[in-house]
Design brief:
The complex is a heterodimer of chains A (536) and B (387). Chain A has 536 residues and is mostly helical. Among the domains of chain A are: 2-234 and 469-509; 308-380, no CATH class. Chain A has 18 helices and six strands. Chain A has helices at residues 2-44, 47-81, 83-117, 124-153, 172-176, 179-210, 214-249, 251-258, 292-298, 308-335, 341-350, 354-358, 372-380, 386-416, 423-431, 435-449, 471-502, 508-522, and strands at 158-161, 166-169, 270-277, 282-289, 454-456, 460-461. In chain A, the strands form three sheets. A two-stranded antiparallel sheet of chain A has the order 1-2. Chain A has a two-stranded antiparallel ribbon with strand order 3-4. The relative contact order of chain A is 0.13. By secondary structure, chain B is mostly helical. Chain B has one domain. Chain B has 14 helices and six strands. Chain B has helices at residues 9-44, 48-58, 62-79, 81-90, 92-111, 118-148, 166-172, 176-200, 203-233, 264-269, 275-293, 297-318, 342-369, 376-381; strands spanning 152-154, 160-162, 237-241, 256-260, 321-323, 333-334. In chain B, helix 1 runs antiparallel to helix 6, helix 3 packs across helix 4 (81-90) and helix 8 runs antiparallel to helix 9 (203-233). Chain B starts with 8 loop residues before the first helix and ends in a 6-residue tail after the last helix. The chains are: A mainly alpha (536), B mainly alpha (387).
Chain lengths: 536, 387
Amino acid sequence: MELDIVELSRLQFAMTALYHFLFVPLTLGLSILVAIMETVYVMTGRPIWRQMTKFWGTLFGINFVLGVATGITMEFQFGMNWSYYSHYVGDIFGAPLAIEGLMAFFLEATFVGLFFFGWDKLSRVGHLTVTWLVAIGSNFSALWILIANGWMQNPVGAQFNPDTMRMEMTSFFEVVFNEVAQAKFVHTVSAGYVTASVFVLGVSAWYLLKGRHMPMARRSITVAASFGLASALSVVVLGDESGYSASHTQRMKLAAMEGMWETHEAPAPFNLIGLPDQEARETHYAIEIPWVMGLIGTRSLTETIPGINDLVAEAETRIESGIAAYDALMTIREQRSETAPQVRDTFEENSGNLGFAFLLLRYMDDPRDATPEDIARAAEDTIPGVAPLFWSFRVMVGLGFAFIGVMIYFFWRSSFCQQSYPRWALRLAVAIIPAPWIAAELGWFVAEFGRQPWTVDGILPTALSVSHLSIQDVLLTLTGFVTFYTILFVVEMSLMLKYIRKGPYQDVEETEIWNARHEHRLRTHDGQVPFATPAE
Amino acid sequence: MILYELLPYDALRLIWWLLLGVLLIGFALTDGFDMGVGALLPFVGKTDVERRIVINTVGPVWEGNQVWFILGGGAIFAAWPPLYAVSFSGFYLAMFAVLAALILRPVAFKYRSKRESVIWRNSWDWALFVGGAVPALIFGVAVGNVLQGVPFELTPDLFSRYEGSYYGKFLGLLNPFALLTGVVSFAMLTTHGAAWLSLKAEGVVAERARSIGVVTGLMTITGFAVSGLWLLLVIEGYALTGDIVTDGPSNPLYSEVQRTSTWLSAYVARPWIIIAPLLGFAGMTMAVLGLRKGREVSTLLWSKLGIFGAISTVGLTMFPFILPSSLHPNSSLTVWDSSSSHQTLFIMLVVTVIFMPLILAYTAWVYKVLWGKVTEADVTGNSDTVY
């Protein structure tokens, strides 16, 4: 029964996090796009840019509020469902969450009200400052939450304290400048920028197809394509950075993503596609590209990347060392300050592997009773589900490259073809609106599912992290959250669609007058408007 | 990094206990009036325009106010990890109810006026009522339970276990004393909301708010007095016994705890703490008078003082306890044995000292920009931008 609580708690966490992450990427990117548009308005004084700011700002607001609402759950869920986790690593993990509140949430939440309510209460520059503060606040929150998450993937700057039975911080600096955290931060915010760019591009393309709000839609496409191109490039490059850091911090995750069972002679090939088989420990029908894996993972042609089987063998040794640490810990806990120095030494030597001994707690109450078969079984538990990781990763990367292609195309049409867009391209832009969300959710899945069976890699197994709750407790809240979030999601989508159909509705008259004059000024001598309409 | 040893461990623990109080009070003072306004909404606003006036008095600020709640969670996690781990899992279903209500609230604010339909708007109005009233009530119930002790125990691994089945655990929270403190909390925040509406709204809305506020204010004063007497005369207290180590490792099991006959002993040991309940009574009484006389700014300030007094009373009465355990008193969490490590407390203090003044400054600036009453013309004239 213990296991069921673990599975249910995981399901609830995954569900609430994935819902939350439906709204966050758009908030991250759209806040910046809106701030860019308002900057153009303040610099040029052209009312159409203010109208764009307000229009995209309205959509930003509808989305933002659900990011906030679903985020409330995230802040408390660690304590509610992951009580032992919270106790065990709160000393390190809590700090970035609190700093996130102090540095980021207050900033974005305090100023977002003024963004909507402050148009006639503030000067132009004053309002622009407010908009940028909202954007900076949102992006800062991503920084701190990914520092927290990065620590779960690569727990640096911390040590186990036998007196308090938990991990304690030894270096705040290492926690903040954790290479995994930094790689994840830039990768994640870039993904948010791509999401918002694809969203703005798609909605604007729909307007062009309908022949509505063309001046606004054209300008929006130009902004989205330029910003989107830069972001789509960086999301792939910085994702590669994540892969590089995984090669020495989370080797099991990397090997599983690759379906790489045996250690390959350097430089390892990259499995383009194949059918990973967890039972047979083999990836069937693999189509390999020579050298590429070695280059991505180690940036060299000589270093080897260990395969899953070798890593399992390594886990067995670490479990044995962990049992020694556990044994010493029990003595220390009993005798406290009277503990013999040799026992302390044994503990210090092996304490890095204590978490591996905890893997045995799934099967027995005392890891010291483990037989070699138990150890082998626990070591095998360190392999995450290979096929789901293998495929999620490939779909995500494929989409990432597709976004680069789309953005290059629209950037080229916008910059060098008089902003004329063929109808098929506009239709494509509308059709791919959901794609960045799929990529983002898969990215979350690869990162967190790939971390299993650990909540904190090598330190604390997921099975041990839960709260003392009953199945009914978690079933009730899981059902509650799913129902509740689904209703909110439907409401959100209906409002989003309503406001997209409605189009810009603020400052309409002023913008139209300006626009008519502006197009008149741009007219060529033969009297043609210089922009082609998509129907031509 | 020896820098953190500049401040001794026990001093940092004390500072973080004070900061915990600051956060809870900050939350009650700011988000408190949002919740009060939510609870008052269906009763002070009869027409759509009136309700929109009510909603728009908090429209631009509720989002920032709510961060006090989020930050409260984060700061407890960072500074008091055992408290975070034990309390939120122990109050599991109550927490779920609070979260559901608080999730409903932002959505209701934002979406209510985005469609014309009467059913749509009425539904969101009741959502705002739930989002204000339910958390206000549950927070009070939680405080009532904490004062009586919570049925948990820590294993030697410091895993926290609870007594009772899932529904029993939830229903057990609803005991008479806790229900009383729940009502006090609800009435207090509603009064605070009324004081806010008296300042930010005008005409019939402000009048209705004032007359309801007088009633809930009197309820608060009575309830606070009754629960205070109950606490001092009936509710069993807790006390640390043996050697009290204030800078030892954060392991609650290292200290010994005994039950005392009532919490009165705290007032015998530290008579000066009587000032907290006195401030509570003074603030609430003056707020009621202010609501009757129609004073605006001063009423809100008195109401704030009342809330400050009431929350301080709870903290000072229980000191050094943060979360006593009724099941296994030795597991009780205290200021001296349930904090983060010395270094984490220090780093978090540095971060707080840098950012808290900034937050207070820009929050004050935003309130200044938005100063003034929300009028009917504001709501009907700017249908595109306001809620």
